């Protein structure tokens, strides 16, 4: 602080951040932090940025006036810190700073900011403090709702919208002979308005249609405000400063510092896309595109947001076709980046492996786009990771109820699933995108990450009804935000395709016309109120017929595996539950002459072992595997195999499952050309066929399958159609196979199974309603409904209704007298030591002994991401254990995929 305390502005007596007792400046003035954050936002909203242009286009405001208004409001985000109650929490004893008045800090500073603003903005408007147009005579009452909507994204910068309730200003703001809190805030706003000169679109604020558009965009604006706050809180680039100066002088300094932090973290500029030329541009080889890829190259793009649904057989090159469309969309200005959304972490790994460095081909060499996989086990661009997650001096949390921005930033980015949404090219699970619809703290950052991205969603047929409902809402919002989407699937029921197009058109504000085509393969293209359905040809080499055989006992399946081993084939057996897979694997190992040629692969492994097993599976069953390597190999696996790995088997057995999953599994049977082999034949382990089954028909012999697929009518219909057709024939029978299972009438279902179908139908309606109930009303804007607070911390909502909440468990082991990570010595050891379990499973694990608390805290300090995991010492757990060959073994067997 300046020695001449009487001469400094009132607002320079307030700190925004503080660490008393540290060397150098022990606090950062509130005015300076406010301008730091605003400077970051200023650069992020540069007029040439596509996001700025999209916001300006939708809001009908030129880019520069829009930038000035939003950045001015962003500078007010911490207005609540002018509260003497907040200042007392910082415990500063610097001369000249606002002195304690005994005000209790019982509310978060973001809420106190709303309180102050709501109480005083009308008077400040009259006094000219806000730089309001002097000739405007609009009654304040007409501006109440518009101003509340306008300010909500800025005061809600800590991850959720806030309201004041029945708080009163006097309880938290005060004055003494030296300084008055409200006057200090007023003076700051007045001087800040002179620096940035906001443009208030008064006429637009009074237009209800304009307000509706703003409310829709307010989620993205809230994400921009949060990101600006996080980056503006980076002490390496914005060091503490106690010195008083004019706002204009500090503003120049803050703009330079903001430019540096954006350069360091990869947010300085959007990557520069290059036009698509040909597949040879990507692979440096003369490759003949598939019919689907040829259509992706030739189809006419529309002017606005557009949806593509690609339905084709396995091997048709859907991923590459999606990349072709994505690159064309990027080059045409329809987006700045990509997000590949996959059903599971395993599919994320597979997509990462398929893309390799392909993402570099979308952009110019100078762009250096960041590419983040959905978890930290492998990341292509570790510079981005280091920059965003760089260690920095931490700001003290203000109170138990109020974490600092740097703390919240570290916590959010510790989960690289979330970080993938902010990268130029992200590969992650669909859950990370869907969570943008739900009242999770900082969900607006997810929506910001998706805004102006091409969203690519793979295997959309695999979503249950709850997830489908969420996906429909995500697509509608993405369309409203101006984004485009590409959906990939091998098989999709007609009704599901229609629902996806309906959701997209609804987001654009159009009534959707009915689809009509039953062709397969098919490319559906939906744009501004219109759609096209384009039938596609199929390459002869991917047209196939897989004969179906039937087994009724596990012993029969084991015998078939044994015969395949003797014949020198490689065999895959896909089971429906982890426990069934472990049991089968143990039985096969007992009869195999070379047990090392038996692999077990499921989702309950620590990442270090899962990565190793995936690598082994690719080596033994992948496209480049040799006959000598493949001979006698056996893989016992679960759905992670069909959903992820580009492998093929000479022989395959599968537990009975709904038809679309069996089609997927059959797609891995003799997938690649390997010379002469027996015709492909899928053996299905299922109950004895019964024309008139009893209600327990499935559970009697296949309890695990019944637990996973509770609608037994789907299983029975699948068995019926496959028995009648005798084969899975692609593409000719694709529509018949799918529609005869998913679109049949209740009259075709045996009476004993009708209840299961009716229960599923009722459950679908219920979960659809539940999904709608759980999701935020994105059209209503970034605001809090005081009658029903969806943001209550105790509310348990998720992206998958059928799954419990899951927990990241980190495996530890003892070394001498301290704890080390399970994958100690490995790069990314903290991530590689983790596995993900359901909450009910985690409750079975032994708690960490109290004597290890200090050692565990030391690990958490070294590896920041561990702060949000559950520690486990498998070697000292009497009931549960971990083995690198079969994964987590729980105290009591559980049926689970």
Automatic annotation (TrEMBL):
A family per Pfam: Cas3_HD
Domain HD Cas3-type: 23-231
Keywords: Antiviral defense, ATP-binding, Helicase, Hydrolase, Metal-binding, Nuclease, Nucleotide-binding
Gene3D superfamilies on file: 1.10.3210.30, P-loop containing nucleotide triphosphate hydrolases
CDD domains according to UniProt: Cas3''_I (cd09641)
Listed GO MF terms: ATP binding; hydrolase activity; metal ion binding; nuclease activity; RNA binding; RNA helicase activity
Gene Ontology terms: biological process: defense response to virus
Domain of life: Bacteria
Annotated PANTHER family: CRISPR-ASSOCIATED ENDONUCLEASE_HELICASE CAS3, DEAD-BOX ATP-DEPENDENT RNA HELICASE 47, MITOCHONDRIAL
Family membership noted in the UniProt record: In the N-terminal section; belongs to the CRISPR-associated nuclease Cas3-HD family.
Name of protein: CRISPR-associated helicase, Cas3 family
